[in-house]
Recover the amino acids of this structure.
């Protein structure tokens, strides 16, 4: 039962990460298409800022517990964990090894966009490329967690229910 | 090749429909509950889950409208963006469905039992007892046998009850009930060892323990697909493709299930083989081709946008065995074993099931038109031709009057015909309706509500058609309708 609850939490977290990156990517698209920031685009980009805040924590600091906010420490740990369970993904997707530094840079850019500052198109393309790769991993991970939970549910049921 | 715009519209419409069905199910569930906890649940699901899903859909809708504003085509980047957005909605829907597993206070519609009985009637010989329950997936389970034996301490014959599961959100959607034929076949196949008989035809083509095991698991799925096709043909084919899109996995090879895309190709070939005169009915041919292309393009987009598994094998399997299983999977597909199972199975199944492919496309097209005009399609009348009018003019005796009734008598349509016509109507008009409700509408909320009314209206017509056709048959058996 404990494992079930844990797996269930995992699904929730993965779906939240997925939604954050989905919002961020749509937000950037709307920004490019409309050339301005409306209420919906702002909301989507703010979700992206939250994602970057989690992603920009140095994995080394997380391991050593150097992040003061415990909730952010846990969430960051989980996000890094979700992405890093797949070191092979990073090789394949060619995300930079210091991706957490990139995330910090992109968070600052997103905040500038939200505040109405102009950002060169080239930079936006670069961000889109980066977050597309992150999304590719997260989309799969969320689905995988759901499948695993479904498989676990069937398994424990066949062993006499839960 | 299917164009990306059509693909995106198809999968978006599917995501909207699932959300509508989930919302409807939740409303009807909560209206049966009372007290404070009911209010909390209602608030959590309807103001939480459904609201989030609708926001996600609206975001995709808005992006699609902007992108297709100047012309009707989608760039590759826009297609990928929308694919990922809608894929994300499907993931959330899947999770939402898992979380409503405990909500089972809705009674099963009698129409489902009618369909289940009609399916069972197609199988020859003795069969097991069935019951239907709600779950978040299509599945079946044997139960009660163990319990009965534990209580009595002896082996009781025919004590097994097969429990068929149908997803909660499909409770009012007869079009997706085609999957019951698939699940019933699993139970029937186990009882009659059909697959063992088919295995003999393969001799040494199947090598080693892994290929043997996969033959058993995958073969079972292919056989169940063949029965689904024989009973519901076009209906099963399209519902399976849409089911695969919702599942979000076209290409993964699992231990229990062959890849969906492979199954779709096999089904398409079988339909072409059985529908020899299909070229005379271009609308039906186009549907078969288009939906296969939709599945193929979906698989391409899945490969590009999601880091999908090529193989899905349980975690507990060690690396060496994993490699062996993967090799066995590849071999079975490369050597065309699955296609051969479907072909041999189709012949062998002739000894076990009575129903074989609906081929009266004229009738199917006619029923579709009636459905389009909002009529209940529970029965059909033979076409009147001029010779009947000549006969009317020359009637002399009472017997001649009764003979004439045979020409104008209404015959109840089978449930299979009703569901097939429903699918034909849906596939031909779906995207058109979708355009009307969403693309030409300025507000997502209004489009959503109009589309919801449209879907629920057609559910009702189909359910009423199934019910009426069954009553019609009942009265014919009683002899009250001159049968």
């Amino acid at each position: 039962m404990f494992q079930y609850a844990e797996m269930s939490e995992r699904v929730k977290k993965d779906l939240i990460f997925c939604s954050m990156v989905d919002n961020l990517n749509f937000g950037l698209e709307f920004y490019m298409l409309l050339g301005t920031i409306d209420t919906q685009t702002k909301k989507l980009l703010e979700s992206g800022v939250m994602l970057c805040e989690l992603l920009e924590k140095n994995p080394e600091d997380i391991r050593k517990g150097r992040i003061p906010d415990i909730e952010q420490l846990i969430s960051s740990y989980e996000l890094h964990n979700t992405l890093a369970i797949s070191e092979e993904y990073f090789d394949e997707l060619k995300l930079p090894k210091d991706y957490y530094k990139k995330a910090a840079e992109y968070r600052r850019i997103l905040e500038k966009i939200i505040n109405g500052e102009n950002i060169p198109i080239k930079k936006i393309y670069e961000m889109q490329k980066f977050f597309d790769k992150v999304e590719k991993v997260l989309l799969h991970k969320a689905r995988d967690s759901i499948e695993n939970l479904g498989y676990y549910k069937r398994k424990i049921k066949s062993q006499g229910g839960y | 090749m299917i164009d990306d715009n059509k693909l995106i519209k198809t999968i978006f419409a599917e995501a909207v429909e699932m959300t509508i069905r989930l919302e409807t199910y939740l409303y009807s569930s909560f209206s049966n509950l009372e007290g404070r906890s009911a209010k909390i649940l209602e608030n959590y699901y309807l103001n939480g889950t459904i609201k989030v899903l609708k926001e996600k859909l609206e975001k995709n809708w808005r992006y699609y409208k902007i992108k297709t504003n100047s012309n009707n085509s989608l760039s590759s980047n826009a297609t990928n963006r929308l694919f990922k957005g809608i894929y994300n909605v499907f993931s959330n829907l899947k999770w939402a469905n898992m979380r409503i597993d405990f909500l089972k206070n809705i009674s099963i519609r009698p129409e489902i039992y009618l369909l289940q009985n009609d399916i069972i009637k197609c199988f020859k010989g003795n069969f097991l007892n069935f019951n239907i329950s709600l779950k978040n997936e299509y599945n079946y389970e044997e139960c009660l046998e163990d319990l009965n034996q534990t209580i009595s301490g002896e082996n009781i014959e025919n004590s097994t009850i097969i429990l068929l599961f149908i997803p909660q959100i499909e409770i009012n959607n007869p079009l997706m009930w085609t999957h019951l034929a698939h699940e019933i076949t699993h139970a029937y196949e186990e009882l009659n060892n059909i697959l063992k008989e088919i295995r003999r035809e393969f001799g040494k083509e199947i090598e080693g323990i892994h290929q043997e095991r996969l033959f058993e698991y995958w073969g079972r799925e292919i056989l169940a697909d063949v029965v689904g096709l024989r009973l519901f043909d076009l209906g099963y084919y399209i519902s399976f493709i849409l089911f695969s899109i919702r599942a979000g996995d076209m290409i993964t090879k699992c231990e229990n299930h062959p890849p969906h895309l492979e199954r779709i190709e096999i089904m398409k070939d079988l339909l072409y083989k059985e529908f020899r005169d299909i070229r005379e009915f271009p609308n039906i041919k186009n549907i078969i081709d288009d939906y296969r292309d939709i599945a193929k393009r979906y698989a391409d987009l899945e490969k590009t946008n999601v880091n999908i598994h090529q193989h899905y094998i349980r975690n507990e399997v060690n690396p060496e065995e994993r490699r062996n299983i993967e090799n066995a999977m590849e071999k079975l597909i490369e050597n065309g074993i699955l296609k051969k199972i479907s072909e041999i199975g189709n012949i062998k199944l002739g000894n076990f099931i009575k129903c074989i492919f609906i081929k009266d496309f004229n009738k199917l097209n006619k029923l579709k038109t009636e459905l389009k005009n909002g009529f209940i399609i529970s029965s059909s009348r033979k076409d009147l031709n001029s010779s009947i009018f000549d006969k009317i003019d020359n009637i002399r005796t009472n017997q001649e009057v009764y003979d004439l009734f045979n020409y104008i008598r209404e015959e109840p349509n089978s449930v299979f015909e009703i569901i097939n016509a429903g699918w034909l109507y849906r596939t031909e008009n779906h995207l058109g309706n979708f355009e009307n409700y969403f693309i030409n509408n300025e507000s997502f909320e209004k489009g959503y509500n109009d589309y919801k009314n449209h879907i629920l209206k057609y559910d009702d017509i189909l359910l009423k058609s199934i019910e009426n056709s069954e009553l019609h048959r009942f009265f014919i058996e009683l002899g009250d309708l001159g049968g």
